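The records we work with from here on pair a chain with its fold. A complete example follows; check for yourself that the lines match position by position.
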Amino acid sequence: MNGVSIGILSAYARLVRLPNLLIVALTQFFIYYSLLLPALSLHNLSPLLDDWHFALFVLVTLIITAGGNIINDIVDCQIDLINRPQKVVIDRVISKFKGYQLYWGILLIGLLLSVYLAIHVGNIRLVIIYPIAVTALHFYSISFKQKVLVGNLLIAVFCAGVAGIVWFAERQIIEELGRMNSEIASRIQLIFIWYMVFAFLSTLYREIVKDLEDLDGDQAAYRTFPVVHGEKKAKVFALTIGLALLVFIIIMILKETYLFSLLAVSLMILLVCLPLLYTIYKLLKANNTSQYRHVSQWIKGIMLGGLMVLLAMVLNT
């Protein structure tokens, strides 16, 4: 494979945000194989989705995520030339036409897979979830992100839904587990709730900080929180979310002690709480793009840390 081919493949990997897709897949596999299956097997219960169909289920989630990333880059290519020129691939390495081809192509594959999965589980009405998710992310790129907080909240809900959709898919068998062993079922549900709230708040925190980072470019086209309300109020709002996340974590550790092993608590402190305090401190002092970008990258690390805590929690269940 020559250098040109490698460069094109790298551009496509950046377009779909390959590292983010891997995180989405790992999250769902962690929850399914480390949390749900051991508890179900212990009580001789079988999940609705076997290994093959769960892999297809994860693939559909990845297609929805990748599609949202692609359409966002296509729509934002001119703004991104201001905000992050070094990362732009649309109209540089990949044409808009090829970008749209990839977008509609993978969405069609995802639709076919979602129909197949709905038929497999015997509930064709579940097919509606796919177009709702795809349409929401499409309108995020062309409309919602131009409205104050609407786009930020949508992305935060979607990130929380990465774990939540697994819960939804297997909700009937989890209810059956609850009738057999309410304690283990409650523990599983609390872990889902913990991670979904963590994912929502940490994503929203990063979304507002990213809007502060992109303030110069966004002023020309978008009505983000910093554009409408100013940098100072946006910083206060972001700090409030960061503190709310910290308070939520502390309350969960103190109130639901049985959920957290010593390893989980240690990882929580080292990978989440201390970095979170650091981002709050740096955000208080930040006043330019590079400083906001630094905070944003640290928050991304906190989100990865939360995934490590999730793994430690499910291993303790």
Observations:
- The two ends are 46 Å apart (CA to CA).
- The CA atoms of residues 102 and 234 lie 35 Å apart.
